[in-house]
Design a protein that fits this description.
Length: 224
Amino acid sequence: MSEPIVSLRNLARSFEQGGEVIEVLRGVDLDVMPGEIVALLGPSGSGKSTMLQAVGLLEGGFSGTIRMAGVDASNVDAATRTQLRRDHLGFIYQFHHLLPDFTALENVVIPQLLIGKPRPEAQVRASELLGALGLEHRLTHRPSQLSGGEQQRVAVARALANSPKLVLADEPTGNLDEKTSDKVFDQFLELVRGHGSAALVATHNERLAARMDRVVRLHEGHLE
Ligand SMILES: Nc1ncnc2c1ncn2[C@@H]1O[C@H](COP(=O)(O)OP(=O)(O)OP(=O)(O)O)[C@@H](O)[C@H]1O
């Protein structure tokens, strides 16, 4: 049996606000296996985004352990965290976070240049990904010239550009209407499965969750 792409043990996080301590995560255990697509369900405020931030190695302040592709990522320096993120992770947020002054194509090219891929190769890859998402006619558009669904598709292409082992998605279609959300989500699942990437997808949406390989639920700081 292969090892998990990410493994969480006793992950905990609390925040202090106005003298009060809120324990958001109280000892979360989770293994995500290579290629597995896991839905992270939970009501608003249950800690889904907090958990994704931990797995994304974006924030400190957590206790417990996070192993990524066999490496203990819990207490590493910022440079190692950045390296682990670049080597293994792709991110998709509810709002696309695309670079506003760059075209759709460039938004997918840039993350590849950051890991040292030659530009011509990066451009071919970006065109292929955007083409697979039905955006071949939108390559030179800037984000403000795209619809919400198109913007999220560019964000999907960007997240997959470096063929991450794990895609972290926080309500990836949460700002779209139901029909567009279903369509973009289908394309997202197809591409992630086609790449053999694993994914951890935070959502409120039971219908979308049912389309994934496994559903875990955050409840009172624990996973059910
Ligand atoms: N930086 C912070 N400082 C204080 N409290 C925080 C901070 N970040 C998150 N919280 C609190 O932690 C709890 C969990 O927030 P989180 O955003 O992880 O929930 P969520 O499940 O992703 O919610 P939603 O579905 O609404 O996005 C909330 O009560 C929130 O107010």
